[in-house]
Amino acid sequence: MSTNYLQGRRIAVGVGGGIAAYKVGDLIRELKRQGASVRAAMTKAAQEFITPLTLQSLSGQPVLTDYFDVTQEEQFGHLHLARWADAFVIAPATADLLARIRLGLANDAVTTPLLAFRGPVLLAPAMNTAMWENPATQENVRALLLQPRFRVVGPGVGPLADGDVGAGRLAELPELIEAANALGAAGPLAGKKVLVTAGPTQEPIDPVRFVSNPSTGKMGLAVAEVARARGASVTVVLGPVGDVPRDGLDVVPVRTAEQMLAAVMARVESADVFVAAAAVSDWKPAAPSDKKTKKGEGPEALQLVRTPDVLATASKKVHANARRPLLVGFAAETHDVVDYAKEKLQKKRLDFIVANDVTQEGAGFGTDTNRVTILGADGSRQDVAGEKREVASRLWDIVAAHGFAR
Ligand code: CTP
């Protein structure tokens, strides 16, 4: 995986109660310097070694310390942290914390969000040598590593706080960062190629006017971002949306439906998943002018013709192949949402369609949230509401559970 995984990622740091907890401040600072947003969660024991206020100041984010605290739970509770994070780093992972994670316990502010988290986890053990070498601890680590999304860094060998010399030191900062940067390879989409269309298209009337729609590309970019965070290499064929964050994404800028079609057709056959989230203009002016039309000479009516359907054309092409990518479409509707979406699912021969009622509050163009129903060709149906990023996460959970190229 590329070394800039941390750039633009959301990292949850779970802090256990060991003397090495004092080093976590440096870790958080460095994660941020690498371009990550960081939120910390602390066990009760961790708070004996370092204060939540310290980690809050360094991360610039509230720290989860008590999952029974009503205010914390409301503002940013344990499930929210699990949904927010792209990856977890557990440092220091004490013997006790490792044992509890292995057992699937959820009894503090670290283990509870972690149990609800499906992405990559980096464990950075630190403890007394005898505790590390104890067969119980070794067995716990081995068991966790059976899941490919768990990684371990360290512990290092050297003098320990208790005067012993041996294995048990928290890995050094450069090693921790290197291991965190490799977490993309531990994601559920590691090695997968994802192609996404996003944003509107613009169909020129003349050099200064066009037919378009209010799409901002937020939903498609969230889909791309989450895929990238889970280890995929992602190409976004992106209509004109202005400046948007596109860290770690391969962006192919296009303007018209025809350009979008050409960019997609050149790439779709080698993809594992194709997600068409663009709001492609369905019509374009029949005879665009290459000079600005003066108002005196303008036509009273604009004649429009249909643009190509990017998703349907790509679907037709890949269905002729022995191997094809999984196909995911979006359906923006104002009424009879599920019925129309089912129709599109069948007509365009998709595996999934994300049906979007754009008239609902907190859904549709330009909002940060969305309310959708994800329908599968296998008859599955799931309703999802939340930040566009959370909706994207659920979509990838469903796709990953289903499997990729057919
Ligand atoms: N789509 C596309 N190219 C088009 C139109 C739509 O790739 N010219 C894709 C969208 O990206 C989306 C899906 O097809 O994934 C459905 O788009 P939508 O506009 O809701 O449906 P249409 O097929 O255009 O049908 P209608 O406008 O009649 O609702």
Write the topology of this structure.
Elements: E1 10-15, H1 24-33, E2 37-42, H2 46-49, H3 52-59, H4 70-76, H5 78-84, E3 87-93, H6 95-103, H7 111-115, E4 121-125, H8 129-133, H9 135-145, E5 150-152, E6 156-159, E7 165-169, H10 173-181, E8 193-198, E9 203-206, E10 209-211, H11 218-229, E11 233-238, E12 250-253, H12 257-265, E13 273-276, E14 283-285, E15 304-306, H13 310-319, E16 326-333, H14 337-347, E17 352-357, E18 369-376, E19 381-387, H15 388-402
Parallel strand pairs: 1-2, 1-3, 3-4, 4-5, 8-11, 8-13, 11-12, 13-16, 16-17
Antiparallel strand pairs: 6-7, 9-10, 14-15, 17-18, 18-19
Helix pairs in contact: 1-3, 6-9, 11-15, 12-13
The structure holds cytidine-5'-triphosphate (CTP).
Cytidine-5'-triphosphate binds at residues 197, 257, 276, 278, 280, 282, 307, 309-311, 329-332, 344.
- Quaternary form: single chain
What class do helices, strands and sheet pairing give? alpha/beta
Apparent shape = elongated
The CATH homologous superfamily of the largest domain corresponds to CoaB-like
Number of strands: 19
Return residue spans where pLDDT drops below 50 for at least 5 consecutive residues: none
Strand order of the largest sheet: 12-11-8-13-16-17-18-19
- Helicity, in percent? 25-40%
Specify the number of helices.
15
How far apart lie the N and C ends? 25 Å
**What proportion strand?**
15-25%
Write down the overall mean pLDDT.
Answer: 92
Please give a structural write-up.
Helix 1 packs parallel to helix 3. An eight-stranded mixed beta sheet has the order 12-11-8-13-16-17-18-19, sandwiched between helices. It is an alpha/beta fold. A hairpin with a 5-residue loop joins strand 6 and strand 7. 33% of the residues lie in helices and 24% in strands. The protein folds into two domains: 176 residues, Flavin prenyltransferase-like (Rossmann fold, 3-Layer(aba) Sandwich), CATH 3.40.50.1950; 210 residues, 3-Layer(aba) Sandwich (Rossmann fold), CATH 3.40.50.10300. The radius of gyration is 24 Å and the shape is elongated. The structure holds cytidine-5'-triphosphate. Cytidine-5'-triphosphate (CTP) binds next to helix 13 and strand 16.
